[in-house]
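Dear colleagues,

For the upcoming journal club I promised to circulate an example of a predicted protein-ligand complex. I picked one with zinc ion because it came up in last month's discussion. The inputs are reproduced below in full, followed by the predicted structure.
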Amino acid sequence: MPEGPEIRRAADRIGKALVGNIISSGQWPYQTLAGRTHLIEGHEVLSVTSRGKAMLIRFSSGWTMYSHNQLYGRWTVHLNTTSYDSTRSLRAEFITDRHAVRLWSATDISLLPTVEENGHSFLQRLGPDVLDEEVSGAFLARHLRSKKLYRKKASTLMLDQSSFAGLGNYLRSEILHAAKVHPDDRPCDLEDSQLDQWGQCIKSITLQAYHHKGITVDLEVAHSSKDRGEPRRMWRHAVFCRNERPCLTCGDLVLRKRYAGRRLDFCQNCQPAQRPS
Ligand SMILES: [Zn+2]
């Protein structure tokens, strides 16, 4: 599933095509949009943004389209002179005087008044959005100390959207490795300085992935791994998908654990457990 950085990059791409432009026509075959086209067509797109893994498109009509791609949804952006078809099911099509932006296959789409956006059941449950400019590493470190999070395992916290919005599987492994936190440790098992570092890494690794197309290591490290002939899924990361290979930091073997069926890769030497097992 795409994670926060991928959704934010998609929002940037869609925003470039739509923001400041009028939706002159389109197609709205999805059930939650049908019959409500007057809220979109003929109106200007004011903003396109992401919150966690959700996409929000705001119109001058005072309405917002919320969508969540889950596993299958996909956005495409083309010039409106380019014909494009797909075997996927079209859910929404926005035509401007220059572009055609389409959403395919998603099944979680709704229109709601912009002023009521925060009351959306999914958005309401979200924790702080890691990519939000107002959310700093220091803020995230304080959040790790909050009552709700303090006694939960790192492996749980780093995927739970109500704890941190926008994190997913590859970011979980990468953040914990960068922060030197063992996946079974909880914030309450760690020293203050470790919590501060963990908060900073949540921010910096997610930003790095956003700015560099999902690459979570320094670009030089990525290039030297690539030069050694490693496949893309491996050279982008420090530990994720590098299980059974030497850790790039210390040379120990990267291990894989599964939590609720989701893989987590980590290095026992870089991320020693603080809590006696
Ligand atoms: Zn290591």
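Two points we might discuss: Residues 247, 249-250, 252, 267, 269-270 surround zinc ion (CB under 6 Å). The chain has two domains: 4-124, 137-266.

See you all on Thursday,
B. R.
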